[in-house]
């Protein structure tokens, strides 16, 4: 069995996962109470929404419904199946709107759940649906704990023999719950056994519950001989919605070249055609599909899943747009009519297993999830605004490039779209996902001259981006930050979603703690930690409680990296007569940009003596979202002409491993922390450009850290560019080889930038 790097990173966490049962799932009335309710009066229906299939109208409806549900469900969230579709819908809402509050609430919630499934019902698909959200968030931030329990559960499932006489997934809803999670686990780990198991169990369920004549699924085996009042077979709308949407989610996760893909495409197309033909004149479906006149009202949950799946099929080219466009557009317009002024979404059938009655005010979380998922696909489907431009991005390498920063001249953007760039919204043309953008001044004190877009660029294919204006588009959360820290000795701190660093200021220098090295803060969470850590440390000092200090790991990381007089992670100095001559702490800082994609600042260092020369330094640092490497640009100034030998270094401690990487002009260190339980730290430097360099090593002196150095020639007033960054074994750098591979991959990206072209509108 072949496992990729992600699988290796997960293995330790998976083996350590407890197999003990978690808290028992809610049952009966408790589930219903948490999942939703039916009330006598929900007020008036919304008058500020439109059923038009335009991006602004769809986004407004999604936000209104999601905001109400977010508030309503507070203190009701749980790991039961009822909430599984809502979690997927909220993640899709963040992707499409760019508003991080839905995503961030779920991350906090899942931390409370410890990223575990409810596991007391062995192999029960309902208890596994939440794994789909865990997996999506793992793919965003590869923290092994996010899928360790799900993987342990699925590994036990692999050992269960399939039983044709006793289906594992004996009810059709299960095909939404578990199979997509198995398919995505295979994509994450590279282990095809999860897909094999999914195929095996799906086949048994399909053989027992799929009516090939009607091209619909019975809810379970007890429905095989049940009839509607008109004598036709009884097929439940939401049950078939679960299957159609589940099939779409399986296809989303399956590799395009997987041998089993064709069978799911065939089933999807068969069911979609049949279901589309059963759409009511209103645009929706009622709870019983073959006798819709027997039920009084249109119903949202089944209709929402149908609309989501069919719109996804159109977007992926699996369903012909000309045939299915009227179906999904009528359905969306009809669903929006069931949103109340408060944002409550009504006409959702309560928990059940068959067609049934309900009221216009009935609202349940799985129906809201279906509505949000449908909206997310309709944003992809909807035409872009008339005033827009399209970018095409070509990746010259064979590697996927996650969090690629597209750095475009502002003058070029304005030539193609005559709109204030600050008002532009960027969307991935394939997925509809809203992308982070930034208008940026690359020259200190200058006017904005660059337009940045953060995008994932796949290998071997062109990626297209729509740029347009969307009214009322909310600001997107920044993924970088930097600030002076007056509350702690004039520190300066900066971080992104992966790394955090700080340097020491003049107030600390006055106490006798002198260093121009760069500190490493190791974190395992994508959110910013610096402000909370400083507050926590201040409280630790006030209460004399060292457990609160940021030198103690409270779950999100810690500061256990000793800089001392060494260079830390990319600090500089002057090499004179076999020794380093270093500056003192920085004297001034100037922030040029604070995100949301790039933070940019300048640190000034007072003159210091380096041999016969008096040297000063101005260090400009930029850090982009999604990378572990800071771009450093150091400019040394000195009198007398000639050159100096400058150094950029990495601190070294006891038992540190050092590796020279001449093929990429880099230096790599696998370091030891002050706290033994903190694992290992990785630091690295990549020298930019073609300037000559050499390696040098300054060993530890007693307990004083040493330095691994890159030396190069510098001229007065001429900047030297390099990249320096860090990783942590308790995040996503499990070993030295992984860190060195990361540095090589980043060097490859720097040497082969993506190619951007503008497409005709």
What can you see in these coordinates?
The protein has 761 residues and is α+β, with helices and mostly antiparallel strands. It has 19 helices and 29 strands. An 8-stranded antiparallel sheet has the order 18-19-20-21-28-25-24-23, covered by helices on one side. The longest helix is centred in the first third of the chain and has 18 residues, at 55-72. The chain starts with a helix and ends with a strand. The model is unreliable at 1-23 (pLDDT under 50).
Which features characterize this protein?
761 residues; alpha+beta; 8-stranded antiparallel beta sheet; 7-stranded antiparallel beta sheet; 19 helices; 29 strands
Strand line-up of the largest beta sheet: 18-19-20-21-28-25-24-23
Please give the number of β-strands: 29
The coarse overall form would be elongated
Gyration radius, in Å: 29 Å
Intertermini distance? 48 Å
Give a brief outline of the structure.
The protein has 761 residues and is α+β, with helices and mostly antiparallel strands. It is built from 19 helices and 29 strands.
Please describe the topology of this protein.
Blueprint: H1 5-16, H2 29-35, E1 36-37, H3 55-72, H4 84-97, H5 101-112, H6 130-140, H7 145-158, H8 174-177, H9 179-189, H10 193-209, E2 210-211, E3 216-217, H11 237-253, H12 261-276, H13 300-315, H14 321-336, E4 363-364, H15 365-381, E5 388-394, E6 401-409, H16 410-416, E7 424-428, E8 434-440, E9 450-457, E10 462-469, E11 480-485, E12 491-496, E13 500-503, H17 506-509, E14 519-523, H18 530-543, E15 557-558, E16 569-576, E17 579-581, E18 588-594, E19 598-610, E20 613-624, E21 629-638, E22 643-652, E23 657-661, E24 666-671, E25 681-687, E26 694-698, E27 706-715, E28 720-728, H19 736-751, E29 755-759
Antiparallel strand pairs: 1-4, 2-3, 5-10, 5-29, 6-9, 7-8, 7-10, 8-9, 11-12, 12-13, 13-14, 14-15, 16-17, 16-22, 18-19, 19-20, 20-21, 21-28, 22-27, 23-24, 24-25, 25-28, 26-27
